[in-house]
Write the structure tokens for this entry.
Amino acid sequence: MQTSSPKTSRVAVAGNVGATPPKPEEFKYIRFRIDGEVARLTLERPEHNMLNERMLSELAVGIDSLEGRGDVKLIVLDSAGQSFCGGIELGEYTPRRAFQVLDAFQRAFTAMLDTSKPFLVVVNGPAFGGGAELAALGDLVVATPRAKFAQPEIKLGIFPPLGAAILPYIVGPKRALELVLTGEVISAERALGLGLVNRVVTEAKLEATVKEMSEQVTAHSGAVLTMAKKAILGSMGLSLRDGVRQSMAVFLNELSSLEDSSEGLRAIAEKRSPQWKNR
């Protein structure tokens, strides 16, 4: 899926990432733009959006640059070309450089894990290896029938470290073991059934669906969206009792201090639409 915008950053920069990460206006493999309250990052590295050190650094920088921006309520990650993402490209690297790529991989996925903003991933093509892990980290995932998912690392004599950690939370340990130990390719429909995907829509309806979901999310207070995401993800891995305590702590100690929380209650009492200040 390809989109265009006057705010798109597509300036090519030669050389390796080096010690200084690239700025959004210097991105080579990620199209970065902000459209109103939505930031959109598009994977754009022919032919299969294979993740190299530079691309991973750009992804991390793009996500991190949005923290603290109250005007952005949602991050959308999509792709150009026929594939969503074919995974990490290690074939061209020496063993020493391979560790640098894996470190960049960790930084990019940590940025996705740590961002306070809702994250919508759009998969319109194969998502293998690191690409499947990118999709798994989405708070919301929309896919088309062209999407296929796989963790084929086991066939290469390794395993997906991020997938091994996050898949049990999403699909349960038995299904996670099946996906990792077999490396099988699954369809978008099966991914939907497993809980890896929120919606499967035709390509013709994809952009309209992404627009609809984006509008549904951004209609709400950005600050409250952050609190809701924190409460849900902060309770993962806890017992039910501890999870409830964690969620209530966010609700009572953090949510209650927001201006938008008070505004929502006033709007109900005054029978009007709330005017969010996103704080």
Summary: The chain is about 45% helix and 15% strand. The chain has a mean pLDDT of 89.
